[in-house]
Amino acid sequence: MSVDSEKLSTLLHETRSFSPSDEFRAQANFNDETIYERAANDPEAYWALQAEQLTWFQPFENVLNWEPPHAQWFVGGKLNAAYNCVDRHAVGPRKNKAAIIWEGEPGDSRVLTYDMLRREVDKAAHALKGLGVQKGDRVTIYLPMIPELPISMLACAKIGAIHSVVFGGFSSKSLQQRLEDADAKVLITADGGWRRGGVIPLKANADEALSATKVENVVVVRRVGDSAGATMQEGRDVYWHDLMAKAPTTPFEAEPMDSEDILYLLYTSGTTGKPKGIVHSTGGYLTGANTSMRSVFDIKDEDVWFCTADIGWVTGHTYIVYGPLSAGATVVMYEGGPDYPGRDRFWEIVEKYGVTIFYTAPTSIRTFMKWGPEHPAAHDLSTLRLLGTVGEPINPEAWMWFHQHIGNERCPIVDTWWQTETGCAMIAPLPGIVPTKPGSATRAVPGIDVDVVDEHGQSVGFENGGYLVIKKPWPSMLRTVWGDDERFRNTYFGKFEGIYLPGDGAHLDEDGYVWILGRIDDVINVSGHRIGTAEVESALVSHSSVAEAAVIGRSHDIKGQAITAFVTVREGIETNQELVAALKQTVVEKIGAMARPEEIIFTAELPKTRSAKIMRRLLRDIAEGRVLGDTTTLADPSVVESLKSQYKEAD
Ligand code: WTA
């Protein structure tokens, strides 16, 4: 594997360390450091204790059945995720507590108490059931960040239907692929969504995607109104509001789900062109989400929690919906862009609602840095007490900026490493216990066993980089890849038997802290979004002018990584700016705007080994302007020289 040695040596020079204040430690939910040892000695007992924070209709008999690579957690237990996130709080002292404080991009807002949320979820569950949705059916949700999104997810959970949320930034082609793979019965979408004052035409995208699928009904939320230009298809499409108005107002009885029943699918990129439907269970997933809210995020009843992710990604699933709501917290949910109408929108929201815990991505922090500290300085951020980051390694300068300008040098920062597949934060400090170091996600949370190993699965110790691995099963781990258990086995358990391979490179320092070095496979992390090189390559090759394409991620100041595409065109095709624009547009149409290549370099040939493998490392070296390493395995060394000069021209 290739570990970036330059990066490794910069990281190793990071010596700053920040200990929790006595004040923070004293009030923290988790402040006894023996928890690590106790959980390591008996992880099953630790997780069973955590699972008891949930409400079970029927208690579990067995904590874990582990037949690698398949784990079953809390076997025999029955519960319902929506019941745990809503109903149980809608009785007793949290009944009138704000569950969701929603802020629309144009400035409208809506507050749903736990009792109000229960009514909405129950009506939606009745309505979906009325459309024929049954336990185990798949419902695809393609919505902007509006309250109907969590309401739809929870309504599915209440019925026992499996939701598959598709991020609103995905194109109709991507939506179609996901609808087909999940074999969805119903699609829930909106006429459109607001983004930086413009409209994303969700319904029009959905119509295009639906032509070839078996979807029976489409439920359409009116968010934007006439300017979205949405049209309805008689017999198939129905407005959300009409359905909800007709739905019974009686309570909807939560389906008692087996702990191992599927709660949801969420598609993510891998090494092949086809996204994987990651399968999450009910009992284990919810236990992981709930535990991390209390441990890593120190959630309390008084907190106002703001996670800036989109629910279309796993961060939003776990830390806008299932984690905070299962903990009975107050969640701030924001619909739009961080710079609309001004570059202080997030800080305005923090001040307006008295946000206490703020969770965001390093790419956003780098953007805030670029915009300047005057934007947060213009607002009262004194309610904040804890900050968090996720999505990619945070560079120490961005960490320090976050610490100074947002946290006022007072709030601990939890850098949380995890994945769609892991379900919840796996490597992250417990903020009342673990001293932090800028750039490191610190150590595995209690009950999680990670290591860094070499090609043979041997621990590498403190000197070298290696493969990050998770050595024992954990409750919120993915159960399989939807419809493709073989791919699940090969991708995650194919290299080391019974040991989970996340696909990240890492290094341990002498204190045992983990420093993530980035992906070791062909996955690019653009602004915290996982994009498979193969997906972008097949989008490019689908264009009639393209013969071959190789896509790599190069480092980028704000996005972390940016996509560079090297393209060979077919005989007789002219390479010009129009073609560049057309190719970028093809990728946007096939995947979505977040996968648009930053630059396209035309080349007569791609550098290949004698066995005809494209040398991506070399392409990355060229794109990042580095001195080239070993090129002796190249079939035709002159390709590199001509590429280097072309790359300069494209600059
Ligand atoms: C990367 C997002 C370093 C990593 C929750 C992982 C991180 C991939 C961090 C998962 C972090 C996420 N430090 N790298 N704190 N958090 N990553 O599935 O490469 O969208 O494998 O899940 O993001 O991305 P995913």
Automatic annotation (TrEMBL):
In-chain residues carrying the UniProt-annotated modification N6-acetyllysine: K613
Listed EC numbers: 6.2.1.1
Keywords from the named record: Acetylation, ATP-binding, Ligase, Magnesium, Metal-binding, Nucleotide-binding
An example Gene Ontology molecular-function term: acetate-CoA ligase activity
Record note on modification: Acetylated. Deacetylation by the SIR2-homolog deacetylase activates the enzyme.
Cofactor(s) annotated in UniProt: Mg(2+)
Domain AMP-binding enzyme C-terminal positions: 535-613
Domain Acetyl-coenzyme A synthetase N-terminal: 34-85
Binding site for Mg(2+): V541, H543, V546
Binding site for CoA: R195, R196, G197, G198, T315, S527
Stored SUPFAM superfamilies: Acetyl-CoA synthetase-like
InterPro entries documented for this protein: Ac_CoA_lig (IPR011904), ACAS_N (IPR032387), AMP-bd_C (IPR025110), AMP-bd_C_sf (IPR045851), AMP-binding_CS (IPR020845), AMP-dep_synth/lig_dom (IPR000873), ANL_N_sf (IPR042099)
EC category: ligase
Binding annotation for ATP: G391, E392, P393, D415, T416, W417, W418, Q419, T420, D504, R519, R530
Domain AMP-dependent synthetase/ligase positions: 92-474
Record-linked Pfam families: ACAS_N, AMP-binding, AMP-binding_C
Catalytically driven reaction(s): acetate + ATP + CoA = acetyl-CoA + AMP + diphosphate
Coiled coil: none
Keyword Ligase: yes
NCBIfam families on file: Ac_CoA_lig_AcsA, PRK00174.1
Function field: Catalyzes the conversion of acetate into acetyl-CoA (AcCoA), an essential intermediate at the junction of anabolic and catabolic pathways. AcsA undergoes a two-step reaction. In the first half reaction, AcsA combines acetate with ATP to form acetyl-adenylate (AcAMP) intermediate. In the second half reaction, it can then transfer the acetyl group from AcAMP to the sulfhydryl group of CoA, forming the product AcCoA.
Family: Belongs to the ATP-dependent AMP-binding enzyme family.
UniProt-recorded name of the protein: Acetyl-coenzyme A synthetase
Gene name of the encoded protein: acs
